[in-house]
Design goal:
It is a single chain. This protein is α/β, with parallel strands linked by helices and about 600 residues long. It folds into four domains: about 1-205, no CATH class; about 220-315, no CATH class; about 325-455, 2-Layer Sandwich (Nucleotidyltransferase, domain 5), CATH 3.30.420; about 465-605, no CATH class. The protein contains 21 helices and 17 strands. The chain has helices spanning about 1-15, 30-40, 100-115, 160, 175-185, 195-210, 235-245, 250-255, 265-270, 295-305, 320-330, 390-400, 415-430, 435-445, 455-465, 475-485, 490-495, 525-540, 545-550, 555-565, 575-605; strands at about 20, 45-55, 55-65, 70-75, 120-130, 145-150, 150-155, 170-175, 185-190, 190-195, 320, 335-345, 360-370, 375-380, 410, 455, 465. The strands form five sheets. A six-stranded mixed β-sheet has the order 1-2-3-4-5-8, with helices on both faces. The chain has a five-stranded mixed β-sheet with strand order 14-13-12-15-16, sandwiched between helices. It has a two-stranded antiparallel sheet with strand order 6-7. The two termini are about 45 Å apart. The model is unreliable at about 545-550 (pLDDT under 50).
Length: about 600
């Protein structure tokens, strides 16, 4: 989804320079030759200009030449606020959030300067500006991303060329001072620090010789982009580095590393001390302290290292029963479980919205009235092209929750953030709907400090529940398989095709669904994986089509947001549109059902 936003921003950026010439060749030498020839002109604007200095090569998004002066423009989909720019932090250095982008521009500027040493170069970032509102409807829809045979192309709607695209939502930011800082101060990288030019040339030398650079393991490994399961002959970059750095085997890695520690900031310090295995970590390393009200962070971290406390060995998981019992005593039936699906894109779908402003297009609602009395009570999905859904979303939610004062549950603060945002949109709207006061009162009653503030089950999981399966995570995608693995009640209920059955648990999108299923290894299957299997069954022979599977195999929030974006394009055929809508409804329903299952499992554990 984020990548698509980048391609769309790039296409919009080109429209700002209508006389630009694109260097289309993907072959380095050919692209470089074309660039050299075109730059012989006194004035020219190039897209994807190719420049080379020794073994350093760069493709510049937009290069504007006016005689001996160059404007180098790097286009990014990173959000930016031109009214409150945050490039330099309070301590004077470039913020960690912006530094990678500045380094990117600095590298290109260096290569261009070395290639044309007598030229005067100014460097810029071109970024979506969160302070600017779209002045037309359907700005996003003017730039449709197509993927075919591994190629990505943005098709610009003819309306963008004839009718225009409204006010520009991109900010052109001069970054010369920050490029100078990078060139003067050098760059940090795993295992060292040095001048950008020297570091780049060293890496280029290694790349050219196809030689290994000695790995430097550290906390950055937790976010390694190359962690993958062994399949289709692909190797895991994470495992390559850790094996080489420690002379380990895969079995050593499988026993756990310190980078797996949840929410722990001392990973680098431990690694520097030679403590790289999870089992080497002690309570002293974690600054272990027991929490006053539920688990402390260090208690959770220690459970990752040592496992659940011995008194919970038979159960196989930890639950702070007194804490959870006290929390549940505050709840009022019927229980309402809600899950939202939202989208925040670089180029807004609707007039009046800013880049990356949230659109709430879907929710699912389950009700639990007593032990075992569960039903999928309602849902909302508004994904028609060009229709702003947020106010209808709020009205539908008000209808769903307005008949009683039962406790409302969410998983993580996202729902709280979205309701706050919609209340703010109502406040800022120059032409608000007539029911604005009622909607605002309702929305504010559910958010933090409101009279009916939602209960965040993720916080309760963090404070009171631990299972080794989760590896410290409190994501519902990890907690759900964990509770299914130990709850006898969930097994008894959901191992039967009861969900969506005529005499079973009412559902709006499933019929005779079994959620408790063992996989080939004898473990309880992750219900979210069943969504993918369901998609393949629906597609039949079309399942081999990667795009078709992606469209309806929705099993996580990013895919849901991408699906909503696809639904905004009017040229989508009815069959595909209905398949995507069906997948969205099934996915969101499982999300709110997952919360029900977790609470059911916790209630069972408390009783036993």
């Amino acid at each position: 989804m984020l990548a698509d936003g980048g391609f769309q921003v790039g296409a919009l950026a080109k429209l700002l320079y209508p006389n630009g010439i694109e260097i289309r060749s993907e072959h380095h030498a050919t692209a470089e030759a074309e660039t050299i020839e075109l730059l012989k002109r006194d004035e020219v604007t190039l897209f994807e200009a190719a420049v080379r200095h020794r073994d350093l090569f760069a493709r510049i998004d937009i290069l504007v030449k006016n005689k001996n002066a160059f404007n180098l423009i790097e286009v990014k989909s990173k959000s930016y606020n031109s009214t409150a720019p945050e490039i330099v932090g309070k301590r004077g250095g470039i913020t960690s959030e912006m530094l990678p982008y500045i380094i990117d521009v600095a590298f290109q500027t260096f290569v261009l300067h070395e290639t044309y040493p007598d030229a005067w170069i100014k460097s810029y970032l071109l970024l979506p500006d969160k302070s600017v509102r779209a002045t037309i409807n359907g700005l996003n829809q003017l730039f449709k991303v197509h993927r075919q045979n591994g190629k990505i192309q943005v098709r610009v709607d003819a309306r963008a060329l004839t009718d225009g695209f409204g006010d520009n939502v991109l900010a052109l930011v001069n970054v010369d001072p920050y490029v100078a800082m990078v060139m003067q101060e050098g760059i940090d990288f795993p295992g060292g620090h040095g001048p950008l030019s020297d570091v780049a040339l060293d890496w280029a030398k290694a790349y050219k010789a196809d030689s290994w650079i000695a790995p430097s393991i550290g906390s950055q490994c937790a976010k390694c982009e190359y962690q993958t399961q062994a399949r289709d002959g692909l190797k895991s970059g994470f495992r390559e580095c850790w094996r080489r750095a420690n002379n380990w085997t895969d079995e050593d890695i499988d026993q756990g590393t310190v980078v797996e520690l949840w929410n722990f900031r001392g990973k680098d310090k431990l690694i520097q001390q030679g403590i790289v295995r999870l089992r080497q970590v002690t309570q002293e390393h974690l600054n272990y302290k027991e929490g006053d009200h539920g688990l402390s962070n260090s208690q959770r971290q220690w459970m990752q290292v040592a496992g659940t406390p011995s008194e919970y060995a038979n159960a196989g998981f930890f639950l702070d029963v007194p804490f959870m019992h006290a929390e549940m005593a505050r709840w009022q039936q019927p229980y309402h479980f809600i899950d939202f699906e939202t989208s925040a894109v670089a180029l807004p779908f609707h007039i009046g919205l800013r880049p990356y402003e949230q659109v709430a297009f879907q929710f699912s609602h389950h009700i639990m009235e007593g032990k075992g009395a569960v039903r999928h009570a309602g849902e909302f999905l508004l994904a028609e092209p060009g229709v702003f859904p947020n106010y209808e979303f709020a009205r539908a939610l008000k209808t769903e929750l307005g008949s009683d004062n039962g406790t409302v549950f969410m998983w993580s603060h996202h729902e709280n953030t979205i309701l706050t945002k919609i209340a703010g949109q109502l406040e800022e709207d120059p032409n608000p709907p007539g029911d604005k006061p009622e909607l605002q009162t309702f929305l504010r009653s559910l958010i933090q400090s409101g009279g009916r503030a939602m209960v965040d089950l993720k916080v309760l999981s963090q404070k009171a529940y631990f299972h080794p399966y989760t590896k410290g995570s409190n994501s519902i995608k990890h907690v759900l398989p964990a509770v299914l693995s130990h709850s006898n009640d969930l097994k008894a209920t959901y191992s039967q095709p009861i969900y969506g059955a005529p005499d079973g648990i009412p559902s709006k999108n499933y019929t005779n669904q079994t959620w408790w299923v063992r996989d080939s290894d004898g473990n309880v299957n992750d219900p979210y994986k069943l969504l993918i299997e369901h998609a393949k069954n629906l597609l039949g022979d079309e399942a081999e089509d990667e795009l078709a599977a992606e469209e309806i195999g929705i099993a996580e929030g990013g895919a849901a947001a991408l699906a909503y974006a696809r639904l905004q394009f009017e040229d989508l055929d009815d069959k595909t549109r209905n398949l995507i809508k069906g997948a969205l409804l099934r996915y969101c329903e499982l999300d709110s059902l997952a919360m029900v299952m977790v609470v059911q499992a916790w209630e069972e554990a408390i009783e036993s």
